[in-house]
Structure formats: C-alpha cells, structure tokens
Design a protein that fits this description.
The chain is of the alpha+beta class and about 140 residues long. It has helices at about 55-65, 70-80, 100-125, 130-140, and strands at about 5-10, 15-25, 35-40, 50-55, 70. It has two domains: about 5-80, Ribosomal protein S16 (S16 Ribosomal Protein, Chain: A, 2-Layer Sandwich); about 90-125, no CATH class. The protein has a five-stranded mixed sheet with strand order 4-3-2-1-5. Strand 1 (about 5-10) and strand 2 form a beta hairpin. One of its GO terms (cellular component) is cytoplasm. This is Small ribosomal subunit protein bS16. It comes from Iodidimonas nitroreducens.
Length: about 140
C-alpha cells in the first residue's frame, strides 16, 4: 500500500478548510484516511500561527514508513523544517493565460499603438504653422 500525506478538503462552499491526512494513494481526496496529522486554513493571514498546524512526530513517523507528501504538503513541511527542499516539484502552468487570451491582448495592444500613433500625427498636424501665403489668399477670396 502506497501512502500519501495530502490535503483533504472540508468546510463550506467558498470557505475552504483542509485537513492534512495520511491516506492510501488510491483512496479519494476527501475519502477514507488513516490518520489526521494537521490542518491548513487558507483564510487566515499568512503570519497567523493557526494557519498551518502540524503534528511533527506523527509526520516523521509516517515519512519513515514510506509516506510521500504531495507538492503542497511538502512545501508546508519545508517551512516547518521537517523535511528538506526537493528540486523535483511540478511547476504547473495553470495560471498562465491560454492562446486565445494572449492573442486578444496582442490585438488590443496593437490597436492601442495604432490609436496613439494617429493621435500624435493629428496633434503634430494641428501644431504645424499655417503658411502665410495660403492664409492671405483665403482672406482675399472671402
């Protein structure tokens, strides 16, 4: 049986609260677990002591038994000084915009640059002095 140290979500809608649990890696995220070894409340400020609570002795015991922490839990354990930093983290690109969004931003920037160029050209044309000959001819015709 492969063990995982992972987060199990609880709490109300839009009010998450996580338990840090030892579970069989095949069991569902919020399903059956072996032992609760901590809590994580993301709604609390980052400097609050109750944001992340860990039972260090039990976590060390389960790591000795072969439990593997998930990426998020391993970050918590590193901050607490229980484990050392590992370089094999996944750097997911979920937050990066998609192709269509990038195209829309580029199109918007292109249109803004064209509008700015047209505005500067119009202001330069308005600021240019009117030749004296043309103005004299216009007044004589009127």
């Amino acid at each position: 049986m492969s063990l995982a140290i992972r987060l199990a979500r609880s709490g109300a809608k839009k009010r998450p609260y996580y338990r840090i649990v030892i579970a069989d890696s095949r069991s569902p995220r919020d399903g059956r677990f072996i032992e609760k070894v901590g809590t994580y409340n993301p709604l609390l400020p980052k400097d609050d002591n109750n944001r992340i609570i860990l039972l260090e002795e039990r976590i060390k015991h389960w790591i000795g038994e072969g439990a593997k922490p998930t990426d998020r839990v391993s970050r918590f354990l590193e901050q607490a000084g229980i484990t050392e930093k590992k370089g094999d983290r996944k750097n997911l690109k979920k937050g990066a915009p998609g192709k269509k969004a990038v195209e829309r931003v580029e199109e918007r920037n292109k249109r803004a640059a064209e509008a700015a160029a047209a505005a500067t050209a119009a202001s330069e044309a308005a600021a240019a002095p009117v030749p004296a000959e043309d103005s004299a001819a216009d007044t004589a015709e009127a």
